[in-house]
Fold this protein.
Amino acid sequence: MKNRFLFPYWFRYLGWGLVILHVPLSMLGRSHGMINIMDAQPTSGGPFSGEHLFFICTSLVMATGLFFVAFAKEKMEDEQIWQIRLDSLRWAIYINYIILIASLVFIEDVGHMLELNLWVPLIFFIIRFRWVIFRLNRSLSREG
């Protein structure tokens, strides 16, 4: 079975490193006023200001890290892992659209839509995929 569209296994560690790097960077940006927590828009200076470029860089670091974690190969990739991966991706898209539609209907501020559309599907995919793998490993260890 060919795994043409997955990253190597070690990309998972690189991805977690980028996700962990995002946390102090965004906290640093918020403490220095580079990222406005309430609307995720640049505070002043237009689209190419330092604040906006900082926001773009930190968002891309987080999105890239989550992407690497989500789509890195497992140590042993087989048809069952592919099916779990596909099912988890389907659930992540369902949950993303439910949250997106609810937020469009009930929330007037659309400042966090970028983060919602960028991170939520990947986060839910990772959580669901890891949870199903954990349950599968636990049931296999009980049998053996």
